[in-house]
UniProtKB/TrEMBL annotation:
Keywords: Glycosyltransferase, Golgi apparatus, Manganese, Membrane, Signal-anchor, Transferase, Transmembrane, Transmembrane helix. Its EC number is 2.4.1.-. It comes from Rehmannia glutinosa. The keyword Transmembrane helix applies. This is Hexosyltransferase. Its cofactor is Mn(2+). Belongs to the glycosyltransferase 31 family. The chain crosses the membrane at residues 21-37.
Amino acid sequence: MSMKNRGGEQVSRSTVISQRWTLFLCLASFCSGLFFTNRTLDKKISNLEMELAAAKAAQESILSGSPTSEATKDSNRKYFMVIGINTAFSSRKRRDSVRATWMPQGEKRRKLESEKGIIVRFVIGHSQLGLMLHSATLGGILDRAIEAEDQKHGDIMRLDHVEGYLELSAKTKTYFATAVSLWDAEYYVKVDDDVHVNIATLGETLARHRKKPRVYIGCMKSGPVLSQRGVRYHEPEFWKFGETGNKYFRHATGQLYAISKDLASYISVNQHVLHKYANEDVSLGSWFIGLDVRHIDDRRLCCGTPPDCEWKAQAGNICVASFDWSCSGICRSVERIKEVHRRCGEGEDAVWKATF
């Protein structure tokens, strides 16, 4: 069947339909191309945002005067482990007690980095007040105190993070992402500032697993999911874990744990989509669910304070870390950590004699 156009020419209906289909297909192809182009752009933008975040964290370390900026100058340097000591603005006395016991200072710390490939830093972000007033006052009182402390000791790693107890999961993500961007290490360790650590024993423990991929080391536990409001370690998202009374999946207790470089890099790349639970150690364990991760349960990473760690040391089984479960750290650590160090420490020469 045909019809006439205005010029009197015969035009078949099939030709008109064909032209319509051609126009439709062209439009569909354009929309499809636009859709996939947008998805590609979204991925590129996301990657650029992650790179920018890492660069920003490195820049802040440089601007704060921290020696961590040296790591950005030698991208070919390989390290054995990075130990990040989680701390808070109110914990100056705790930091000084750690400096006076198990954390090498001054030239010894620099020697630890150059000869043993071990980085040790206190890890802290910024105060909310400091961020709000930064343009007018160059930071709040708390931030200025940390900057002055770092100028004196050079052992503080600043994070692009706002401090707060309910923000520990976010701080953990930022720590690993920043540490990976600054130092190319085999292992990344997180420890609290009220825990005693034997660095050589920690290094020897990690070295036993260095040929294994995706290693997650700590004192593994599976405690109850606490749904009751107001109790310590309350889990607001308890409903995600099934029936009341259920337990969490296996994860390392938060006082001290270590992960291999591939897992730290995984956190860095995916930090924007990793879910944060109320408890930091639960969050870390959740990020590895679905991955082929080796969970290594080593009870030497959670010894008790004397007499427990002392008896073990006398038996030749020196502890990696010691603390009191009742306090989730050493009770009254500022007063007691020297005693723990004296009775359970591996000795000042241990780290220099150790081979990793």
